[in-house]
Amino acid sequence: MLVSYNWLRNYVNLDKVTPEELAEKITRSGIEVEGIEYLAPKSENIVVGYVKSCEKHPDADKLNLCQVDVGEESLQIICGAPNVGAGQKVAVAKPGAKLPNGMKIKKVKLRGVESNGMICSLQELGLDEKYIPADVAEGIFVFPEDAEVGVPVQELLNLDDAILDLDVLANRPDALSMLGVAYEVAAILDQPIELPDENLTIDESIEAKDYIDVKIDSIENNPYYGAFIIRDVEIKPAPLWMRNYLMASGIRPINNVVDITNFVLLEYGQPLHAFDYDQFGSKQVVIRQGKENETMVTLDDQERQLNENNLVITNGKEPVALAGVMGGADSEVTDETTNLLLEAAYFNSACVRHTVKQTGLRSESSTRFEKGVDPNRVKRAGIRACSLLQKYANGKVAGGVVEVDQLDKSEKSVTVTTAKINQRLGMELDEKDVTSVLSRLQFEFSKNGEEIIVQVPTRRLDISIFEDILEEVIRIYGYDHLPYTIPQGWVQAGGLTDIQLLQREIKNYLSSAGLMETLTYSLTNEKDATRFLTPDIEEKPAYSVGLAMPMSEEHSHLRLSLIPEMLRVLQHNVARTQTDLAYYEIGKVFVSREEEITNQPIENLHVAGALTGLWHNHPWQQEKKPVDFYVAKGIVEGLFAHLELDVTFVQTKMEDMHPGRCAEIRLNGKGIGYVGQVHPLTAKDFDVKETYVFEIDLESVFAVHQPAPSFTDIPRYPSVTRDIAFILDNDIPAGNVQAVIKEIGTPLVKEVSIFDVYQGEHMEEGKKSVAYRLLYQDPSRTLKDDEVDASYQEIIEKVNNQFGSYVRS
Amino acid sequence: MKEELQAIESEALAAVEKAEDSQALQEMKVKYLGKKGSLTTVLRGMGKLSKEERPVIGELANNVRASITEALDAKTEKLEREALDKQLETETIDVTLPGNPIHVGGRHLLTSIMEEIEDLFIGMGYEVKEGPEVETDYYNFEKLNLPKNHPARDMQDTFFITNELLLRTQTSPVQARTMEAYQGNRPIKMICPGKVYRRDTDDATHSHQFRQIEGLVVDKNITLSDLKGTLDVFAKKMFGKDRKIRLRPSFFPFTEPSVEMDVSCKVCNGEGCSVCKQTGWIEILGGGMVHPRVLEMSGYDSTVYSGFAFGMGQERIAMLKYGVNDIRHFYTNDVRFLSQYHQA
């Protein structure tokens, strides 16, 4: 809402506050002032001049030579504007004047003839082009005849105004009107308010009911409709002060009738609509819901398709206006209009909202209906407009208003006590502190013992309960007076849950392991949303969740894997010559098991990693280690070792992964993730080089994780190691043999590790040698050689039996 | 005999002094102290001595042996040390060459900020609650006093999935879920951090995905002053102990009264500068007293319980605290951005 400081002065005395001070006070009391704009700096050298004569320039067709009386002197000015003419009163920038655009006016010679100033357009005087009336948009501005020659134009054109830009939130529709802002400012400054003139002289010879009838078929959406009749209006420009205020408020003046309805809309916050009575098409206004397949042409010459959710104003036959949103083209007020039908109505906000959403037409009118208008100001706004039409359009106002009225105009009452207010604020206000705020807000109240019963004016739609009054009291009294306290009483030990702690622990581990945390978008494109699924998701049909109306294809579906967006992060960095990257992320994936979603999807927390380039690089010592499968796997193994969980890795195949370099990660036999190399074709898709990734479902980890492992004594007795190298068929996974050794050797064998793998020369075709180191230990005694030997022999025998292997000699 | 012993001692000591390597010292050990060495040879004549002379000479002989042994040991040690020094000298390296690099990872700046805020409130007795990111209209709006068709719904443009399902636009539904779970019969002190989503075009100050952290305290006799005091603690911890706060009235459907909190500008110390747009204050977060309807909808008797709530964007806090000038940096994950905040 743009609020003209000068306009506001008509209602409240602002003599003691500058626009800046006022803006600060309004902001601190509840409505944020986002900015202050001054139209133009004051200049004594731009004055009203009278064009005494105007002749063609002797040497230039498009220039005029004007003699202009500027009060104390007469100036010869050359003017190029097409609309300049003798007898006009115009804005003259005298030599020495500086225009808002920075131009300095000097005496010059144009084609040999002296010019001692400049006749200005509104643009040149500092007004925004989009608010300038069409008739003067292409040329100089012409003042009304009564303008006084020689006076500075600033005041006449309201250029000394300061415009406050108020950010009015949904709770304060009252501040979408000058009167509403005036009540607010009056309360803040503790000043009285002066209301506008609603005096009206009726033309006794005409009665509105002889010209119009009103019928409402949709009373719940339109509980009040008032029709005023004004005859014999004279269409002409509105008075200059009114046009000035409209332009300052961001509305372009059109003609007196349209300007008056707009002026009252801004002043009262009540939208009005003026129809050309003679083009209305009947003597009856019928308000009803639209019909399927019905159409109408709105003021902007667009054909609108209607339906039964739209409220329409009709002439009994066809729609003439979209109620509260926009009028129709056929009954628009034009230069030929002489008789008016003026509508002052109350339209239900939800109904207007619906039409606005459907048509995309948001206007000054619809905004106010959507947020709610004051039921007690609807008719008064109509009367105020009639009074202005009488004065500034010479209209004859018919007696009576034809209305249907089922509007609830009653005031709410809210009961408060000072004690309760203090209890909620944590303050010690006196009763008179409370009542003084109510008085400043012009809220009526009565007292009943401790109780203060507040009558809430209908302009304040936001106030209906105790807490609302509480807010009024503290915002006007001042938040700065509140003390600083900390909640007393009930206490609990704050903290993180085991799962939250575990997440932090995983971040600690991965950060320490050299990975950088990323944060990517949950929304990705439809194709990528269902790639790189972990085995627990792939178990059953899984669907990605798509948005009903995405803003772009790149962010249309919720991810089922963290990897695609992480690959995009790699790509971004690689493209910027950052080639050695190791990233991790913890975030949710969204799994729907329904093809057509109706329930909330399952949200699983995942941890994922993506690595590319060099893992280790120390060039001058010739140490260079590119990321490979075992680097990625080592990170995963380290993570589970850190969490004290045993996982196994099983060769697997996944669509977007290298067919020979991908392992499923199993925890207690259940697939919970994968680690491996991204398929070269997929990598090409994402425009990344050789890349290794892992992804793990953390929900499965949380389900089995024991937060605090109990203490295990440090072994006091020596351990014994034994090495065995088995010759195995190539396709036997070394890890399987390792697991079997462990199983057979338990409980004496504490650890089995692989320390050598050999294939090639001196090795039978299709065979490999894998060397295992076995660690024997008993926590309670020193082991004897013969029991270790027995176990060792048993392991050799059983492994050879199971895998068809033999021991390498 | 005494003279002989003294002669052996001085000869041996002189010889040890002159020895140049351990080989020579070994030979001397044999020559003077060995079984056929000169000292042994002399001592063989002990038998010829008188009863009185024997202990005297014996003691002298022991002293000589000790003296030579000591000299030999000392010399051995000296030679070894010299040899070692010489060897180490040859092992000298260029210490200005770069060391073996350690891959340093780290948390995302937003994670650091979030944990810092979490820890601050945990210290004041808050628990940390989480909730689903795909929410129902009911918990995201209706339970927070935003019925369907409420004009304030426009304040947050929403990503809808179906008519009833949406991406949460705020972390407040976690508050509603917690209140509902506690069934109105116990006090609450919680914060809820998490991702939220809004239909905004990504630019320097907007992101369609961002993170919030909200707080909620419900108990008997919670006051607006309690909110002010709590926020003051927060602001001073996050932005410095010299910061001041101020509250301004605002509007949120789920709180009444509602406030915005400003912190005095760190750059100009409240004097007014380009960062704070000459106001001396920077808007940080919103909050207020929990709306009685919100309490009632979750089973809390609003005549017995009152509460305050507040919420903020983590990105905004991070941007203000570290001077980050574009919200997209958080989601682009450029390694050159991420690595700036290892110790954040």
From TrEMBL, chain A:
Domain TRNA-binding: 40-154
Cofactor: Mg(2+)
Chain residues that bind Mg(2+): D462, D468, E471, E472
InterPro entries per UniProt: aa-tRNA-synth_II/BPL/LPL (IPR045864), B3/B4_tRNA-bd (IPR005146), DNA-bd_dom_put_sf (IPR009061), Fdx_antiC-bd (IPR005121), Fdx_antiC-bd_sf (IPR036690), NA-bd_OB-fold (IPR012340), Phe-tRNA-ligase_IIc_bsu (IPR045060), Phe-tRNA-ligase_IIc_bsu_bact (IPR004532)
Lineage top rank: taxon: Bacteria
One term of GO molecular function: ligase activity
Keyword entries, A-Z: Aminoacyl-tRNA synthetase, ATP-binding, Cytoplasm, Ligase, Magnesium, Metal-binding, Nucleotide-binding, Protein biosynthesis, RNA-binding, tRNA-binding
Positions of the B5 domain: 409-484
Cofactor binding, per record: Binds 2 magnesium ions per tetramer.
Pfam families from the UniProt entry: B3_4 (PF03483), B5 (PF03484), FDX-ACB (PF03147), tRNA_bind (PF01588), tRNA_synthFbeta (PF17759)
Reactions mediated catalytically: tRNA(Phe) + L-phenylalanine + ATP = L-phenylalanyl-tRNA(Phe) + AMP + diphosphate + H(+)
Localisation per UniProt entry: Cytoplasm
Entries under CDD domains matching the protein: PheRS_beta_core, tRNA_bind_bactPheRS
Recorded family membership: Belongs to the phenylalanyl-tRNA synthetase beta subunit family. Type 1 subfamily.
NCBIfam families in UniProt: pheT_bact, YtpR
Record note on quaternary structure: Tetramer of two alpha and two beta subunits.
Protein name: Phenylalanine--tRNA ligase beta subunit
Taxonomic lineage of the native organism: Bacteria, Bacillati, Bacillota, Bacilli, Bacillales
Automatic annotation (TrEMBL), chain B:
Gene3D superfamilies noted in UniProt: Bira Bifunctional Protein, Domain 2
Cofactor list: Mg(2+)
EC numbers, comma separated: 6.1.1.20
Reaction catalyzed: tRNA(Phe) + L-phenylalanine + ATP = L-phenylalanyl-tRNA(Phe) + AMP + diphosphate + H(+)
Location of the protein in the cell: Cytoplasm
UniProt GO molecular function: ligase activity
Binding partners and assembly: Tetramer of two alpha and two beta subunits.
InterPro entries hit by this protein: aa-tRNA-synth_II, aa-tRNA-synth_II/BPL/LPL, Phe-tRNA-synth_IIc_asu, Phe-tRNA_ligase_II_N, Phe_tRNA_ligase_alpha1_bac, Phenylalanyl-tRNA_Synthase, tRNA-bd_arm
Ion transport as UniProt keyword: no
CDD domains: PheRS_alpha_core
Entry note: cofactor: Binds 2 magnesium ions per tetramer.
Species of the source: Oceanobacillus neutriphilus
Name used for this protein in its record: Phenylalanine--tRNA ligase alpha subunit
Family listed: Belongs to the class-II aminoacyl-tRNA synthetase family. Phe-tRNA synthetase alpha subunit type 1 subfamily.
Keyword ATP-binding included in the entry's annotation: yes
Residues reported to bind Mg(2+): E256
Pfam families: Phe_tRNA-synt_N, tRNA-synt_2d
SUPFAM superfamilies referenced in this protein's UniProt entry, alphabetically: Class II aaRS and biotin synthetases (SSF55681), tRNA-binding arm (SSF46589)
Domain Aminoacyl-transfer RNA synthetases class-II family profile: 73-340
